[in-house]
Amino acid sequence: MFALILICFFLPFMSLSCQGKDIVTMTGLQMATGVELANPAASLSGSLGGSVAAAAKTQKIAGSVPLGIAFVTAAAGLAATLLLKDRFQQSLVPGVASGIGAIILLFVKSGTDSEVIKQGSGMIQVSYGIGFYLALLLFIANAGVNGYQFMEERKQK
Hints:
By secondary structure, the chain is of the alpha+beta class. The protein has helices at 2-8, 28-33, 40-48, 65-83, 87-120, 130-156, and strands at residues 12-18, 21-27, 35-38, 58-61, 124-128. α1 (2-8) runs antiparallel to α6 (130-156) and α4 (65-83) packs antiparallel against α5. The longest helix is centred in the middle third of the chain and has 34 residues, at 87-120. The chain is elongated and about 60 Å long.
């Protein structure tokens, strides 16, 4: 499941739109590491019918540290799944990593939503893509499966 989660970070994670027109769509990896995009003000000027002068042709969007941690958590969970030999640890470590990853994704969503509302004054809408929802679902499912395996191993000991 961790391999699938890592693949999800290469899929569309989030889109910003203004008045129904897409401004930018970013993958999870772009959101985690940062990306340089065409200035959204230039895109908005045409869609709003105004003459908003863009100060720069490109704009650097900083990476999200929590989303980077979620990506690293998925990679660490994959490594733990492949490298740990003890069945007890093999279910505990990936389960904890999955739980942490799911919580981080929910915090990122909450923070992004509130920031877009604050910065966009209600004109900019955020929508989350298939990559985000699949990663969240897989983190939750993996936490559940590993939690169940951990409890079964604990009963046997």
